[in-house]
Amino acid sequence: MSISSAPVIPAQRPSGADDRAQVRIEPGDLNRSSSIPLYQQLAQQLQRAIATGELAPGSLLGNEIEFAQHCGVSRPTTRRAIAELVGRGVLVANAASAPRSSAAGSTDR
Known about the structure:
The structure is a single chain. Helix 1 (38-51) packs across helix 3 (75-88) and helix 2 crosses helix 3 (75-88). Strands 1-3-2 form a three-stranded mixed β-sheet. The protein starts with 7 loop residues before the first strand and ends in an 8-residue tail after the last strand. The radius of gyration is 13 Å and the shape is globular. It has a single domain, classed as Orthogonal Bundle (Arc Repressor Mutant, subunit A). The chain has three helices and three strands, in the order E-H-H-H-E-E. It has helices spanning 38-51, 64-71, 75-88, and strands spanning 8-9, 91-94, 97-101.
């Protein structure tokens, strides 16, 4: 699956609210010497941000390239993390917009 835009967490937001998420995942949050692949670590960090409310339902993750640069990972790593969360129903993505968090931030898939 090719995801050309940012992921989305679907949900209700007040009209006029800024859709762009301000997720704080710093390069130091990812352990490059871990046996856990970076894309899985990034997916875990995103899922944690959703679970704690840092990334509200319906929030846009924003530009994939900028997000990858901010996190200190490659674009393919970011895409793989996003694809994993889309597959679990935690994020929603479509070609027309950036990925968003799902309404419930569901992890039941």
